[in-house]
Amino acid sequence: MASTHSNLHPAQADLRALKGEIPLIGLTGGIGSGKTAVSSLLAEFGAGVIDTDLISHQITSPGGKAIPLIATAFGDDFINPEGALNRAKMRALVFKDTEARQILEQITHPLIQQETVKQAFELSKSKVSYLVFVVPLLLESGTWIKLIDYLVVVDCPEETQIKRVMHRNNMSRSEVENILKAQTNRKTRLAAANSIIENKGSLEDLKLEVLKLHQDLLII
Question: From 3.10.690.10, 3.20.20.60, 3.40.50.300, 3.30.930.10, which CATH number describes the 10-53+115-217 domain?
Answer without folding.
Answer: 3.40.50.300
